[in-house]
Amino acid sequence: MSSHEELQERIHQRVEAKREEIIALLQDMVRIPSVTHPPGGDEGPVQVYMANKYKEMGLTVDVFEPTEVAGIEEHEGWWPGLDYTNRPNVVGVWKGSGGGKTLILNGHCDVVDEGPHELWKHDPFSGIVEDGKLYGRGSVDMKGGIAAMTMAVECLQELGITLQGDVILQSVVNEELGGYNGTLACILRGYEGDAAIVTEPSDLKIEPGTKGGQAYTITVPGVGAHQSFWWEGVSALDKAIRIKKAIEEFEEIRYRQTRDNLLFSDPVLFPTPAMADSIYSFVSGDPAIIGVPYETKMELWIDVLPGEDLDEVTKSFEEHIQKEASLDWYLKDNPPIIKRADMRPIYPTQIPLDHPIVNDMKQSFIVYMDEEPKVCGFEAACDAMMFNKFSNTPAMVFGPGQLKWAHRPDEYMDIEQLIASVKILSLAIVRFCGVQSER
């Protein structure tokens, strides 16, 4: 057995020995609610926990609120109007001996609201394990990723490994709901690397690219009337249905434009590469008024893929809706109001498919999973965008769990994926940063 094969086996054995510790760390994190609710958020307590964990590991720890970073509020990537009181980032640095590459491992600790508890099989902050699944809000999005990257470093420390390059662990605030100021603050604080892995739930896929997109509110007008005199009105619901069909047509156009996008071409993983008919809110009329709906509002999201221009895609979407409205006898004179949602622009990004971090992640995956990994794009947007747009650190996505279980009742982390991700990340750190010595 070569020294490299021996190290691979030592990592495997160490991670398996720490299985219960890995699970316990994620349980602890899930049991500390950290819901984001703009303009504020409740990340403070879980960040105290993470800071203590990093200190126990002997890392150099930096705790700071985003607004403490000089010049951040004047930066083009800053999104205003948010309150960061008791919402600090926590960064832990494991210094190498020198001469190696620096790797950033990044994850956000904030979670979306859990919704009605009665919709959950278990309490949303229980962290209960059942049938190989760890349940709770944030278990997959993305405290599981933070737990994995943290325990990967701890495993290497316990193996007595001295790296050549540095490893920078970042537990950041304010990613959900298009925040991203937490990661921007880390960048402007001076944390740069030769690469970054954002440990979002990728289902263990290697993801060098992320989607961008734009949220919209479309307000469709009508003329209200008593229901017994419906002919006196114009139903905003009927007109909104016409706009909905136009949105469906636009998605068909986008399908033809994006089906061959290299990272999003797999028809099983991406039945619709770039969504447009993604309406997440639809309100028509007023239940207190029994009558013809005078207004309909719909909120939706359109995807933009790596290699595309966000402004060009959004412009074409708006023109398509306006053109359809102009063909309607009522909407041509009373056009719908198409408003971009009050959130930051989300740009698609991609790093080279042959970047060293991508190659190291692929090889590390093969060692422990005994198969070729899927290399594709991330299904959504995430903090990787901030690295790729506003720093010199190329960022990709890799982490445990399936994104489809996020933002819904009974969110869970698959335990075996969590354990596998710790092994893969541990070996990738070694490969990328280089080893000075082993104990």
UniProtKB/TrEMBL annotation:
InterPro entries per UniProt: ArgE/DapE (IPR010182), Bact_exopeptidase_dim_dom (IPR036264), Peptidase_M20 (IPR002933), Peptidase_M20_dimer (IPR011650), Peptidase_M20A (IPR050072)
Keyword field contains Metal-binding: yes
The Peptidase M20 dimerisation domain, residue ranges: 209-325
GO-annotated molecular function: hydrolase activity; metal ion binding
Co-factor requirement: Zn(2+); Co(2+)
Superkingdom of origin organism: Bacteria
SUPFAM superfamilies to which the protein is assigned, alphabetical: Bacterial exopeptidase dimerisation domain (SSF55031), Zn-dependent exopeptidases (SSF53187)
Keywords, sorted A to Z: Cobalt, Hydrolase, Metal-binding, Zinc
Pfam families: M20_dimer, Peptidase_M20
The keyword Nucleotide-binding belongs to this UniProt entry's keyword annotation: no
Family statement drawn from the similarity comment of this UniProt entry: Belongs to the peptidase M20A family.
Protein name: Acetylornithine deacetylase
Organism from which the protein derives: Paenibacillus abyssi
Lineage: Bacteria, Bacillati, Bacillota, Bacilli, Bacillales
